[in-house]
Amino acid sequence: MKPESLHALVIDQHSGELPPEVADLLETYLVTNPAARADAARIVEVLRLTGEVVARHPECVRVFSQAEIKPVREARRKWASPLWLKAAAVMAFSSLTAAGGFYAGSTRPEASVIANVASVTPRKDSPWARYRMALDPLSSGMQVVRVDIAEKEVRP
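^ that's the sequence the OP posted. Answer follows.
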């Protein structure tokens, strides 16, 4: 068991906040582990001494009332940004990022060079059929046309 866990369990047991099953398990652990038992005894002694000091000198301890705690919470909310402001910031950031990406992509010269090279390159004869997109003369759409018979075929 970690020392932090042991300290928390001993403090909870001293305050009477542990369920009976957990208190029994803690007692069994302390019986079987002498180093943990000595550490727990030290913690209990510190808690006892702290209780005596608070009982003798209550002016040393400041206890906050609910009226004092509430303004502190309201002050925190005052500085907290509302949800709509966070959403607006996210939208502004994403739109600026998208606009920057569009601008960077549209001004890149390699895209136009690649398109020109691809259109100028002559096609080689191949046993495989080739297709291209062409405007459909009968409608306002596009159609896929086989390249080698495009001139021969006329759509009825």
